[in-house]
Specification:
Shape: globular
Radius of gyration: 16 Å
CATH class: Alpha Beta
Helix content: 40-55%
Number of domains: 1
Number of strands: 5
Bound molecules: adenosine-5'-diphosphate
Strand order of the largest sheet: 1-2-3
Order of helices and strands: EHEHEHEHEHH
Length: about 160
């Protein structure tokens, strides 16, 4: 069975992430979307909230599992007996960071963890969680950027209705 892990912050999950998850779920038998618990960042949503949002938004994809992890991706992947990481590429600005991340993981896993890149759907190439958080913080309408459930969570977090 082919399994791939899609790691990320997902703070919160956007239509850009969902597009990558949907396409990856058609390429592999099993996808583990895993929220990175990064203590050096101060996220808007807790890991539990991000996991719940991802579960709500991917419930229709039967081969997608939602999880979370701390520490090194290579250690987590080994624990899951998985040799493929999925990452999304939006623009050249992503490329430097993603190349570094992929090469580091390949090296420190001694060639055990490959990274597969999916290029963004053009419709979502501008879209990031940072943008979504920024718009929502000013009480803007994010309904074109994230699913309804995530909209509600954002409106609740920032104390407004749209
Ligand atoms: P971000 O805060 O930039 O959305 P994440 O850590 O949540 O970052 O992203 C996880 C992965 O998803 C990364 O590989 C990132 O490049 C990718 N990604 C994020 N947004 C999009 C998008 N709109 N289209 C395609 N890939 C994306």
């Amino acid at each position: 069975m082919s399994t791939a892990i899609y790691p990320g912050s997902f703070d919160p999950v956007t239509y850009g992430h969902i597009d990558i998850i949907t396409r990856a779920s058609g390429m592999f038998d099993h996808i583990i979307v895993s929220v990175l618990n990064n203590p050096s960042k101060s996220p808007l949503f807790t890991v539990e909230e991000r996991v719940t949002m991802l579960k709500e938004c991917t419930a229709h994809l039967k081969n997608v599992e939602i999880d979370s992890f701390s520490g090194l991706l290579v250690d987590y992947a080994r624990e899951k007996n998985c040799h493929i990481a999925i990452r999304g590429l939006r623009a050249m600005t992503d490329f430097d960071y993603e190349l570094h991340f992929a090469q580091t993981n390949f090296t420190i896993s001694k060639g055990d963890l490959e990274t597969v890149f999916l290029t963004t759907d053009l419709a979502y190439s501008f879209l990031s969680s940072t943008t979504v958080r920024e718009i929502a913080s000013f009480h803007g309408d994010v309904s074109e950027l994230v699913p309804k459930y995530v909209c509600k969570c954002l409106y609740k977090k920032f104390g407004y209705e749209n």
